[in-house]
């Protein structure tokens, strides 16, 4: 029996409607009875279109949003029942990489400051000295394929792919076990995307991480993930092993999404070429 | 022999920046006929968008400077036209769609009014557009333009089109706004449509619909399309022809079936192998190491040589010229003919 890393149990999130001088808006059901569980060491993909609730769910896992009902457990600990101090300790084990590496690094902080910030924040849990922190920063950079010569540079000196590597290094700083990846490659070119995806695979093999991978790119999910869940308008439509869902989708929604995937292959109608 | 719709010949573009002059377009040759959809693909910064902006002359000069070449729209060199003459072509002969549908509509005007303005501007050049004589009164012309705007909205698949003419852009979703922009680009019945990453900001399901719409419009309006994208899947699905760009050059071009089915340039091959497919096993995705070169001091000879796995000393001697490898399929690589043997190894 494999250990469960993350368990989402019947979670709903309702944003209240607004009443203003231009009329009122109805309440929004961002998540409706979502249940899923992520096993330790696997890559779990969450796929959905914009507005389907992917981000709300991610924010709930970080406890940046409180679900209206239901519970979220990370390694058995219910997020809703933790005190602030316990939550802070837990967050050193759950980290996130955001979509846009151009927006998620502070331009006025050096790479060293960026990577060591989590170490400072989680000082209580990690208890590293200054000296150990700088060693750790250099180690993290080499882990993501960069070198100590980059430590004292600023984000604007790096390309998109390198910035995303810095974001990954920052996420790994506090030694997390669960990494939330919120479309980490959708702002990157395909060639750079391939490098980052390979880095993620390698890191998972080396560090035994669990990935919760959010994406709307089915090709990337199929490549990286073991299991996948499809979400539409706040409801889980289908979940299961990646291979099963891509080969034999059961729901209409899954068939539609997979059918809309632009595959790089010779169009059948052209019937030419090698 | 009919004249091609768009013919870009040996176009060179330099950009002045604080660090020096960058050779951003380096001898682009591209011919687009009516009924063809040309995909322009490549990594960021390879000059795809600049090629598109050059055709519509929306690239400000300076900092841009065209050092050589011509852009012929049915035989007329667009680079020699004044801005006022160019303004008359835009919207009428050349339609444009850009990446971000939210920033390209004026939030303060109703969709209908924005469409009518484009239609009336196009009608000044060609009264047939709105099907109303140029001597007709202002009100009559406006009414005709509005009727056309409603038809166009319905055509791009917006339900209840006539009523929605009165809506403002914020009342439309992203995909719907992109449809409105397509309607706006098509309302003047352009001969040439330039679509710069029209679906990058959209979901895959909406993307598929928008691409289908562009494909159908080509048939309906007998136009030529330049579709700029970084997604080879989109090209395979939509385009009839493709030109692969790298660092300001077209490195491989030809019919989609030939280029995607049998890519011969190492860069095209590398781009294709960087996309995970059904067969790609975990950890086996082949990335393309390195990044696009600095164009202020480009590498000597073939600009792809520093990243190319098949590079030889001869590659850095001179810029390779396109070699024909089949029916209108060409690639700019000196080892094109050895490629099959090299790949098998």
From TrEMBL, chain A:
<dbReference type="InterPro" id="IPR050319">
    <property type="entry name" value="ABC_transp_ATP-bind"/>
</dbReference>
<protein>
    <submittedName>
        <fullName>ABC-type glutathione transport system ATPase component</fullName>
    </submittedName>
</protein>
<keyword id="KW-0813">Transport</keyword>
<keyword id="KW-0547">Nucleotide-binding</keyword>
<keyword id="KW-0067">ATP-binding</keyword>
<dbReference type="InterPro" id="IPR003593">
    <property type="entry name" value="AAA+_ATPase"/>
</dbReference>
<dbReference type="InterPro" id="IPR027417">
    <property type="entry name" value="P-loop_NTPase"/>
</dbReference>
<dbReference type="GO" id="GO:0005886">
    <property type="term" value="C:plasma membrane"/>
</dbReference>
<feature type="domain" description="ABC transporter">
    <location>
        <begin position="6"/>
        <end position="258"/>
    </location>
</feature>
<dbReference type="GO" id="GO:0016887">
    <property type="term" value="F:ATP hydrolysis activity"/>
</dbReference>
<dbReference type="InterPro" id="IPR003439">
    <property type="entry name" value="ABC_transporter-like_ATP-bd"/>
</dbReference>
<dbReference type="InterPro" id="IPR017871">
    <property type="entry name" value="ABC_transporter-like_CS"/>
</dbReference>
<comment type="similarity">
    <text>Belongs to the ABC transporter superfamily.</text>
</comment>
<dbReference type="Pfam" id="PF00005">
    <property type="entry name" value="ABC_tran"/>
</dbReference>
<dbReference type="GO" id="GO:0005524">
    <property type="term" value="F:ATP binding"/>
</dbReference>
<dbReference type="GO" id="GO:0055085">
    <property type="term" value="P:transmembrane transport"/>
</dbReference>
Automatic annotation (TrEMBL), chain B:
<dbReference type="InterPro" id="IPR003439">
    <property type="entry name" value="ABC_transporter-like_ATP-bd"/>
</dbReference>
<dbReference type="GO" id="GO:0005524">
    <property type="term" value="F:ATP binding"/>
</dbReference>
<comment type="similarity">
    <text>Belongs to the ABC transporter superfamily.</text>
</comment>
<dbReference type="Pfam" id="PF00005">
    <property type="entry name" value="ABC_tran"/>
</dbReference>
<dbReference type="InterPro" id="IPR013563">
    <property type="entry name" value="Oligopep_ABC_C"/>
</dbReference>
<feature type="domain" description="ABC transporter">
    <location>
        <begin position="6"/>
        <end position="272"/>
    </location>
</feature>
<keyword id="KW-0813">Transport</keyword>
<keyword id="KW-0547">Nucleotide-binding</keyword>
<keyword id="KW-0067">ATP-binding</keyword>
<dbReference type="InterPro" id="IPR017871">
    <property type="entry name" value="ABC_transporter-like_CS"/>
</dbReference>
<dbReference type="InterPro" id="IPR003593">
    <property type="entry name" value="AAA+_ATPase"/>
</dbReference>
<dbReference type="InterPro" id="IPR050388">
    <property type="entry name" value="ABC_Ni/Peptide_Import"/>
</dbReference>
<dbReference type="InterPro" id="IPR027417">
    <property type="entry name" value="P-loop_NTPase"/>
</dbReference>
<dbReference type="GO" id="GO:0015833">
    <property type="term" value="P:peptide transport"/>
</dbReference>
<keyword id="KW-0472">Membrane</keyword>
<dbReference type="Pfam" id="PF08352">
    <property type="entry name" value="oligo_HPY"/>
</dbReference>
<dbReference type="GO" id="GO:0016887">
    <property type="term" value="F:ATP hydrolysis activity"/>
</dbReference>
<protein>
    <submittedName>
        <fullName>Oligopeptide/dipeptide ABC transporter ATP-binding protein</fullName>
    </submittedName>
</protein>
<dbReference type="GO" id="GO:0005886">
    <property type="term" value="C:plasma membrane"/>
</dbReference>
<keyword id="KW-1003">Cell membrane</keyword>
<dbReference type="GO" id="GO:0055085">
    <property type="term" value="P:transmembrane transport"/>
</dbReference>
């Amino acid at each position: 029996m494999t250990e469960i890393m993350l368990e989402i149990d019947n979670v709903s999130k309702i944003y209240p409607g607004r009443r203003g001088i231009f009329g009122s808006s109805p309440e929004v059901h961002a998540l409706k009875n979502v249940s899923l569980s992520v096993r330790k060491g696997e890559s779990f993909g969450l796929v959905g279109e914009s507005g389907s609730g992917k981000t709300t769910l991610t924010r709930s896992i970080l406890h940046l949003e409180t679900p209206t009902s239901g519970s979220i457990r990370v390694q058995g600990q219910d997020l809703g029942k933790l005190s602030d101090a316990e939550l802070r300790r837990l967050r050193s084990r759950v980290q996130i990489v955001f979509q846009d590496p151009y927006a998620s690094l502070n331009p006025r902080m050096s790479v060293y400051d960026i990577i060591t910030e989590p170490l400072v924040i989680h000082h209580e849990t990690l208890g590293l000295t200054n000296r150990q922190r700088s060693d750790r920063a250099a180690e993290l950079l080499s882990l993501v394929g960069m070198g100590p010569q980059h430590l004292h540079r600023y984000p604007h000196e790096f390309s998109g792919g390198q910035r995303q590597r810095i974001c990954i290094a920052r996420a790994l700083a506090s030694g997390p076990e669960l990494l939330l990846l919120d479309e980490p490659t959708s702002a990157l070119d395909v060639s750079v995307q391939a490098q980052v995806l390979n880095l993620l695979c390698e890191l998972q093999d080396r560090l035994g991480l669990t990935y919760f991978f959010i994406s709307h790119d089915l090709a990337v999910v199929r490549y990286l993930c073991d299991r996948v869940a499809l979400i539409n308008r706040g409801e889980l439509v289908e979940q299961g092993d990646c291979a099963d869902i891509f080969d034999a989708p059961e729901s209409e929604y899954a068939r539609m999404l997979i059918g809309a995937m632009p595959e790089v292959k010779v169009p059948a109608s052209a019937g030419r070429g090698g | 022999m009919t004249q091609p719709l768009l013919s870009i010949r040996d176009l060179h573009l330099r950009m002045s920046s604080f660090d020096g002059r960058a050779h951003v377009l380096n001898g682009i040759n591209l011919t687009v006929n009516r009924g063809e959809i040309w995909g322009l693909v490549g990594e960021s910064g390879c000059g795809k968008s600049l090629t598109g902006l050059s055709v519509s002359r929306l690239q400000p000069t300076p900092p841009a400077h065209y050092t050589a070449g011509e852009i012929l729209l049915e035989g007329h060199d667009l680079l020699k036209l004044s801005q006022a003459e160019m303004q008359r072509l835009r919207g009428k002969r050349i339609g444009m769609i850009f990446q971000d549908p939210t920033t390209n509509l004026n939030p303060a005007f109703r969709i209908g009014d924005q469409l009518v303005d484009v239609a009336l501007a196009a009608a000044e050049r060609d009264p047939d557009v709105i099907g109303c004589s140029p001597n007709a009164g202002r009100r009559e012309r406006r009414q005709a333009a509005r009727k056309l705007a409603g038809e166009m909205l319905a055509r791009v698949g917006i339900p209840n089109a006539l009523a929605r003419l009165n809506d403002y852009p914020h009342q439309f979703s992203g995909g719907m706004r992109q449809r409105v922009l397509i309607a706006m680009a098509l309302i003047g019945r352009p001969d040439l449509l330039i679509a710069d990453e029209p679906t990058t900001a959209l979901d895959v399901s909406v993307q598929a619909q928008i691409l289908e719409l562009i494909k159908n419009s080509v048939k309906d309006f007998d136009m030529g399309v330049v579709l700029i994208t970084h997604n080879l899947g989109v090209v395979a699905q939509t385009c009839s022809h493709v030109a692969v760009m790298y660092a300001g050059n077209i490195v491989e071009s030809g019919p989609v079936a030939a280029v995607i089915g049998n890519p011969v340039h190492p860069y095209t091959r590398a781009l294709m192998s960087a996309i995970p497919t059904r067969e790609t096993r975990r950890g086996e995705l082949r990335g393309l190491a390195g990044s696009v070169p600095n164009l202020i001091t480009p590498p000597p000879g073939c600009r792809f040589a520093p990243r190319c796995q098949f590079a030889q000393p001869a590659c850095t001697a001179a810029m390779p010229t396109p070699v024909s490898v089949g029916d209108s399929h060409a690639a700019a690589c000196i080892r094109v003919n050895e490629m099959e043997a090299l790949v098998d190894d």
